[in-house]
């Protein structure tokens, strides 16, 4: 009786390996991109959570109901907050470029120098031991403007964040964000006020009809000025998923 050997020919093996190679070439970049986005989303979520928790503790420690009552609207108060509630690696002061990258881009590829992208009102930059950098205004007031709801004036501030400092990719919406700070210590986009989050309507959302509209009013993706406003709002609306 003849015995038959069962196996694959060299040609069959080579064809199979070629197919595997093609599939890997097609899917690997997508997998890497998805993993990178998840990592970037986790990084900004971690910073936002840390900042919001610190602001809450800062108000509690100062027995205050608002950041202004706690002293956050003064240069001394800001310095006290960031130096005592964060682990600072370096204080770049007015030399913002020492803490941030030299150029930044939007997701569509438009590039600007750091000074062109960053609002001039941002005047004090820091790098944390975690590697993240941020820049705030050192003016003696909440520098992000104000809004009126039911006849009461509310103030807000802002902070520029690069979740990994000078390292790349230095892209708005990836590792570079603009976050607004409200007087109650909460963080969001400039139109997504605490009142809007509690009861979304045009009167509470600074003219925007819904909370989603308030969070996505600024164009994170295609802003030619590489201004990262609106990027945090998109993440919040998509449960911290970077699907843009």
Number of strands: 9
Structural class: alpha+beta
Uncertain residue segments: none
Number of helices: 7
The number of domains is 1
The span between the termini is 66 Å
**Largest sheet, strands/sense/barrel:** 7 strands, antiparallel
* Rg, Cα atoms, Å: 23 Å
Mean pLDDT: 88
Shape: globular
**Sequence of secondary-structure elements:** HHHEEEHEEEEEEHHH
The percent range for helix content is 25-40%
| DSSP strand content | 15-25%
Question: What features would you describe in this structure?
Answer:
- The structure is a single chain.
- This protein has 244 residues and is an alpha+beta fold.
- The radius of gyration is 23 Å and the shape is globular.
- Strands 1, 4, 5, 6, 7, 8 and 9 form a 7-stranded antiparallel sheet that branches.
- The mean pLDDT is 88.
- It has helices at 10-61, 67-70, 75-85, 114-117, 194-198, 211-215, 231-237; strands at 88-93, 103-105, 111-113, 124-128, 133-136, 146-149, 152-162, 176-182, 187-188.
- The protein has one domain.
- The termini are far apart.
Summed up, what is this model?
The chain is an alpha+beta fold.
Descriptive labels:
two-stranded antiparallel sheet; 9 strands; 244 residues
């Amino acid at each position: 009786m003849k015995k038959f050997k069962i196996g694959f020919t060299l040609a069959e093996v080579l064809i199979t390996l070629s197919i595997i190679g093609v599939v890997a070439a097609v899917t690997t970049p997508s997998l890497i991109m998805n993993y990178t986005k998840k990592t970037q989303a986790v990084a900004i979520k971690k910073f936002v959570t840390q900042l919001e928790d610190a602001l809450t503790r800062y108000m509690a420690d100062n027995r205050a109901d608002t950041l202004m009552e706690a002293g956050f609207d003064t240069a001394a108060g800001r310095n006290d907050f960031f130096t005592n509630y964060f682990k600072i690696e370096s204080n770049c002061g007015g030399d913002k470029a020492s803490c941030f990258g030299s150029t930044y881009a939007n997701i569509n590829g438009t590039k600007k120098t750091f000074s062109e992208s960053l609002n001039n009102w941002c005047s004090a930059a820091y790098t944390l031991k975690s590697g993240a950098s941020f820049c705030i205004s050192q003016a003696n007031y909440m520098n992000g403007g104000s809004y009126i709801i039911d006849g009461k004036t509310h103030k807000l501030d802002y902070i520029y964040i690069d979740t990994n400092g000078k390292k790349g990719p230095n892209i708005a919406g990836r590792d570079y964000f603009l976050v607004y700070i409200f007087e109650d210590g909460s963080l969001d986009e400039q139109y997504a006020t605490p009142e809007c989050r509690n009861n979304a309507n045009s009167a509470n959302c600074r003219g925007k009809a819904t909370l989603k509209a308030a969070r996505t009013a600024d164009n994170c993706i295609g802003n030619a000025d590489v201004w990262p406003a609106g990027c945090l709002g998109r993440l919040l609306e998509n449960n911290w998923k970077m699907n843009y």
